[in-house]
Amino acid sequence: MNPVLYAEDEPDDVWFMQHAWETAAIGNRLVAVSNGQQALDYLAGRGPFSDREQHPLPCLLLLDLKLPVKSGFEVLHWVRAQPEFHDLKVVILSGSEQSSDVTLARAFGVVDYIVKPASPARLVEILQERKAAWLAQA
């Protein structure tokens, strides 16, 4: 079962997602990276992520938009420019509710756009509601 790559720079958000992931009983391993460049390196199999046995390609990318080094939109642009990632499902998980962000993300073909919930319990609900759609055929 392929992992899910989670690009998020806030350690608290990563902790809450890991907890919610376990609570929602999602079998895919969640792999967190803390900036956009690390997400690109993981996907490209560069540097510390070059061993595909230890770092297999993800079946889903959970992507924050406001990332250091490379923004979520830069990551999204790169992903969609790579033929091998044309079908990679991407879910935006961002604090931004700006319609321009939502519109641009949808133009890049994201499968979902989630505004980060304030409550950890709500995050669990979202994962339980959407995991089947996000991870179908994963």
Count the beta strands: 5
CATH C-level category = Alpha Beta
Secondary-structure class: alpha/beta
- The quaternary organization reads as single chain
Question: What does this molecule look like?
Answer:
The chain has 138 residues and is of the alpha/beta class. The chain has a single domain (4-133), classed as Rossmann fold, CATH 3.40.50. Helices cover 41% and strands 16% of the residues. The chain has helices spanning 11-23, 36-44, 72-81, 99-107, 120-134; strands at residues 4-7, 30-33, 60-63, 89-94, 112-115. A 5-stranded parallel sheet has the order 2-1-3-4-5, with helices on both faces. Strand 4 (89-94), helix 4 (99-107) and strand 5 (112-115) form a beta-alpha-beta unit. Helix 1 (11-23) crosses helix 5 and helix 2 (36-44) packs parallel to helix 3 (72-81). The N and C termini lie close together (7 Å).
What are the salient characteristics of this protein?
single chain, 138 residues, alpha/beta, Rossmann fold, five-stranded parallel beta sheet, 16% strand
What is the topological layout?
Blueprint: E1 4-7, H1 11-23, E2 30-33, H2 36-44, E3 60-63, H3 72-81, E4 89-94, H4 99-107, E5 112-115, H5 120-134
Parallel strand pairs: 1-2, 1-3, 3-4, 4-5
Helix pairs in contact: 1-5, 2-3
